Amino acid sequence: MVPMRLAAAGIMIAGANLVTRSNPTVVQRSFNISDVIHKLYSFE
Q1: Phi, psi (deg, nearest 5) at residue 43
Q2: Using CA atoms, how far apart are residues 42 and 14, in angstroms rounded to an integer?
Q3: Contact (CB, 8 A) for 30 and 19
Q4: 37 with 13: CB under 8 angstroms?
Q5: What global pTM score does this model have?
Q6: 3-state secondary structure the chain
Q7: pLDDT per position as a tens digit, 2-44
Q8: Does residue 19 contact residue 31 with C-beta atoms inside 8 Å?
Q9: 36: exposed, middle or buried (C-beta count within 10 Å: 0-12, 13-18, 19+)?
């Protein structure tokens, strides 16, 4: 289950980075995604 979670988190991070580069105003949303990922990791 952990590799699946790592893969999903990697995809989310990559997508957030692409969106942030194309539109800097979405930086706060990408930070929110990062917070959600950290919460998922805290359960491990």
Answers
A1: -80, -15
A2: 20
A3: yes
A4: yes
A5: 0.39
A6: CHHHHHHHHHHHHHHHHHHHHHCHHHHHHHHHHHHHHHHHHHCC
A7: 688 888 888 877 877 776 666 666 555 656 777 777 777 766 5
A8: no
A9: exposed
Give me 8's structure tokens: 């999903």
Tokens of 36: 């959600």
Residue whose pair of structure tokens reads 């979405």 in the numeric block = 26
Question: Looking up tokens 């893969």, which residue turns up?
Answer: 7
Residue tagged 């990697």 (tokens)? 10
Q: Which amino acid is at 35?
A: D
Q: Which amino acid is at 10?
A: G
